[in-house]
Amino acid sequence: MQDGVMQAWLESSHLAGGNMAYIEELFELYLDDPTSVSDEWREFFDQLPRDDSNRDIKHSLIRDEFREAARNKLKQAGSTVSGPDFKQVKVLQLINAYRFRGHQHANLDPLNLWRQPEVPDLSLAHHDLSKDDFDTEFNVGSLAVGRETMKLGEIREVLDRIYCDSIGAEYMHIVSTKEKRWIQQRLEGVRGTPTFKAEQQRKVLRELTAADGLEKYLGSKFPGAKRFSLEGGDSLVPMLKHLISRAGEQGGKEVVIGMAHRGRLNVLVNVLGKKPQELFDEFAGKHGASKGSGDVKYHMGFSSDFATPGGNVHLALAFNPSHLEIVNPVVMGSVRARMDRLDDKDGSKVLPVTIHGDAAIAGQGIVQETFNMSKTRAYQVGGSIRIVINNQVGFTTSKREDARSTQYCTDIAKMVQAPIFHVNADDPEAVLFICELALDYRNTFKRDVMIDLVCYRRHGHNEADEPSATQPLMYSKIRQHPVARELYAQRLKKAGVIEDDYAEDLISDYRDQLDKGEIVLPEFREMEAHSVDWSPYIGNEWDVDYDAKISKDKLKELGEAMSSVPDSVPLHSRVQKVYDERMKMARGEKLADWGFAETLAYASLVDQGYHIRLTGQDSGRGTFFHRHAVLHNQDDGSTYMPLNNIRPEQGQIEIYDSVLSEAAVVAFEYGYATAEPKAMVMWEAQFGDFVNGAQVVIDQFLSSGEQKWGRLCGLTLLLPHGYEGQGPEHSSARLERFLQLSADHNWSVCVPSTPAQVFHMIRRQQLRPVRRPLIVMTPKSLLRHQLAVSDLDELTTGVFQNAIGEIDSLKPKKVKRVVFCSGKVFYDLLQERRKREQDDVAIVRIEQLYPFPAEEVADILKDYQHVKDFVWCQEEPQNQGAWYSSQHHFRGAIPKGADLTYAGREASAAPAVGYLSEHNKQQQRLVDDALTIK
């Protein structure tokens, strides 16, 4: 620190003598938390000189220098610290302790079962204070209560009300001083006692009556039926309604909600406006004649419009299977699609709300993955509101030492510095206040925020469960505990807000409405026409006609445009070579390779105005150095995308290198694709095997979403697949799993083997008026294989071929064996056959394994009706790949009386061997088996 500056400090009147120790303590508080001191002091400390590199000096160095200066000055002055100065600092430390740890003494549990450990920092004695100081006036520093000084007794009382009553606030872990100061102003400004007008209070009572009334009605009408009731967490209903209303008032247009089972039926009826009669019919087992298997009641989604002071807000409750937290990234993807459609750059028009269980949010890793994505370019949605229905028990697990390793179930949110507001669900006004604070924080700072709605579960995990067997003490308390509606009605009566009969009248009125079966939500509005239109894609089968024509001149034009890079973007020498080669391919001087054809497909689509979104762990460059769609300037590290510079007013293509996640990322892209049919949404695995990490998304959403919920989705998965001797974890995309899940034309599973095929496949997926997933086994070695090339004419004529017949000039009558295969093994077979100069074995490629192209294969086999020997050849072990799942298709395609045998690796627990020498032996053996006629 400069001597002149220090001297100026020491000569200042308020830094002299005994005040020096007072300032030192203030400075210590400032170092811990800049918001703990007043604005005046913070501004003073902020002016401490920086070092020459304009970085902050380490706190320890500043502190040591400050202390040394204080000691020297005190020696010179011969002074000691005065009592009032010492205690003033201790008062400020007490205030800061409440901000940090007041939540640990808050009255959060409606059942009063929590036994939080004593926090010494919150005691007067810890700060060398006592009740004898209660009448002494102290400066309150930055405590935002509207006064500069207060008596210690008042300070202690107001701190208890703010931080230790029905709200427990955790926000001091946030790095940003601005954000912490904002939260302090909002929390402390009401002194722990938020006020609502009588009209709003009566509205809350009506909503609590509705929440409680629906559960009691269902319980009496359908006793023992599973409904995962909200009882104990009834405040969720007024909270959600208030949140939506306030969001609309602040300019929000859409709210997307994701939640698991608990309270879902209540939210459907009392927040989204589903007709009670429709719900009753579902309980009674009635259903419409719509196609699909349907799903259980507490998995279903819903859409409606909700009237707010700012206009109607569109609500969408996401469909969600029993895999609990997996819906979170689905919601975020849906929100991102809506943001893009509304040109909403920061999330001000679309709000994601996810509702969690306390056991699930602490136990499911997808929560961490979704939080980790929240501020990245590809996945940010402007922050989300996370609400935990904290029943204090999972299925039967309630002891904290069994349920998690953290004090609170919400501690995971600290990884992204989200503020966490714990609130007692039996205090509806505290719930509404926190709801307002959370939404305003999210809208102001565009960050996630967590509300921990501490409540209880009146019944077992479901209504047929007996909870007392495992939680006897908890359920003894619950049986005697009044519901939130009763508690709040008594509170309003005592305050003179309602008359004695008012609450009872609400109960009977709501029950009458349920008896009628009509909509009970006053804010419900019939949905207006929204900007997304699925009608062109509904009811179409795979073979529907579409216009795929594109001229050779147009392809050359697009090829040159996507291969042109400005001189101002110097490329890596290897990338420059790739682009030089692509320019030759565009001009017809060189055959097209895989990377060129794939990129040209994207260029042709954006030229037609389509939006493309491609994410994956290395998608910009491509894991195998083949795509190079995102170019990196070798001088300054900036990026350039030729595909976004095809022509003015083209469609946009987004390509992002994603976070290192599979489950959350694939779920996000699924959510995006279900909300935006006009965009081509793609996810690429780094290696196909890594899709294992997203198996839940594939099983619960991608493969069955249309059958269960009628949800169309055009998501494309690009999964590198092929046996090149790279070991068990880098060979197989688990083709067998996708084929096993294939039914009802739920998706297509393709294994393209040429650049022309991948070009036509990508275009077909977007141009065909069908929105079902596409699963692609993409190659690795074929990306640069000398035989895996295509002429430009192949790209301009025809469409994707579901099956490809013999390409060599064999005489059909001489053929004694036909080998079926897919993917890379075709080239191994072809090269070996040519090497042998063999002309009695024909090779047929099945490029689309599902839906199986029976007609195309039948057409190819017309010339081979005399053949009795058919073989399916695959690289994968016999119990994997296509053999077990698809052999019935192969048998159905071959002539009557013909035999079908298998050529490939033997059954194996692992996908592949780890030793290259063993791999090569196996590969040669399976090729020999396929080509050698016994």
Please tell me about this protein's structure.
Its EC number is 1.2.4.2. Residues 592-785 form the Transketolase-like pyrimidine-binding domain. InterPro entries: 2-oxogl_dehyd_N (IPR032106), 2oxoglutarate_DH_E1 (IPR011603), DH_E1 (IPR001017), KGD_C_sf (IPR042179), ODO-1/KGD_C (IPR031717), THDP-binding (IPR029061), Transketolase-like_Pyr-bd (IPR005475). It holds the Pfam family 2-oxogl_dehyd_N. The chain folds into 4 domains: 3-106 and 118-160, no CATH class; 198-525, Rossmann fold; 552-796, Rossmann fold; 806-931, Rossmann fold (3-Layer(aba) Sandwich), CATH 3.40.50.11610. 39% of the residues lie in helices and 13% in strands. The longest helix is centred in the first third of the chain and has 24 residues, at 198-221. The termini are far apart. 48% of the residues are buried.
> According to CATH, what is the topology of the largest domain?
Rossmann fold
Biggest sheet statistics: 9 strands, mixed
Q: Which residue ranges are poorly predicted, with pLDDT under 50 across at least 5 consecutive positions?
A: 4-18, 77-81
Number of strands: 25
Output the radius of gyration.
Answer: 34 Å
Please report the distance between the alpha carbons of the first and last residues.
90 Å
The helical percent reads 25-40%
- Mean pLDDT, rounded to whole units? 90
CATH architecture of the largest domain: 3-Layer(aba) Sandwich
Assess the beta-strand content as a share of residues: 5-15%
Return the domain count. 4
Q: Structural class of the helices, strands and pairings? A: alpha/beta
**Spatial strand order of the main sheet:** 3-9-10-8-7-4-6-5-11
CATH superfamily of the largest domain: Thiamin diphosphate (ThDP)-binding fold, Pyr/PP domains
CATH class of the largest domain: Alpha Beta
Counting DSSP H or I runs of 4 or more residues, the number of helices is 32
Tertiary shape: globular
